[in-house]
Structures are given as C-alpha cells and as structure tokens.
C-alpha cells in the first residue's frame, strides 16, 4: 500500500478514521491510534477517548459484580454457620419448641442460596 498523499512512498500505517494509507511524513499518533496529520486528528482523538471511556465502564461493572459475588458468598457462609449454630442450640435446649430447628434450617437454606448466587455472579464476571 502506498501513501494516499505521496504516490511513490510506501505507507507505514492506516488512518483509524478514514482508512487511508499514510507514510512517515503524513502520519501522527494520537492516544495509541494512527491518524492523518492535520486532517483526522480530531476524529481519531474523539474515537480514542470514547473507546477508553467504554473500557473503563466495562472494568467498573466487572469490579462491582465481583464485589457483590463475594458479598453473597460471605453472607451465605455466615448464615449457614448461624443456622448450624441455631440448630445446635436446639440440640442443647431440647426443652424449647422446634423454633430453633426451623430457624436454623431457614438460615442454612437461605445461606446456601446466597452462596450459590454469589458463585454464579463470580463465574459470570470471569467470562
Ligand atoms: Zn484520516
Ligand atoms: Zn505521505
């Protein structure tokens, strides 16, 4: 490919905005992208800024889902432990009604659901 402006010179890059071949003399680098000198610079700069902003957004949502995934898992583990503890109380104070047992089972089940939900979120965010 030859330079769009200089027919005899080989192009070293392609403008990100208009796709024309550019030689060393015609090319300018903006935010890691190539552009025609004095022609497409503004467009390429805007494109690069847009791209960067999008990448940042993706990174943030990944971080949020990772945090919420970990939060669910932690909550799940804690409530399973609370449930087991309450069930243990039921074993010790067997005079009490079955309320401890019921409460304990509810905690364990809820904890298990939170744990698996958190795991699913973490798995999803790794894709
Ligand atoms: Zn251009
Ligand atoms: Zn040129």
How would you describe the overall organization of this protein?
This protein is mainly α. The protein has a domain at 59-125. The protein has helices spanning 41-92, 99-125, and strands at residues 13-14, 21-22, 27-30, 33-36. The strands form 2 sheets. A two-stranded antiparallel ribbon has the order 1-2. A hairpin with a 6-residue loop joins strand 1 and strand 2. The longest helix has 52 residues, at 41-92. The two termini are 38 Å apart. The mean pLDDT is 87. Bound molecules: zinc ion (2 copies).
Keywords:
mainly alpha, two-stranded antiparallel sheet, single chain, two-stranded antiparallel ribbon
Radius of gyration: 30 Å
Distance between the termini: 38 Å
* Unreliable spans: none
- The rough form would be described as rod-shaped
Which structural class matches the secondary elements? Answer: mainly alpha
Total of helices: 2
Name the average pLDDT: 87
Query: Which percent range describes the beta-strand content?
Result: 5-15%
Specify the helix fraction band: 55-70%
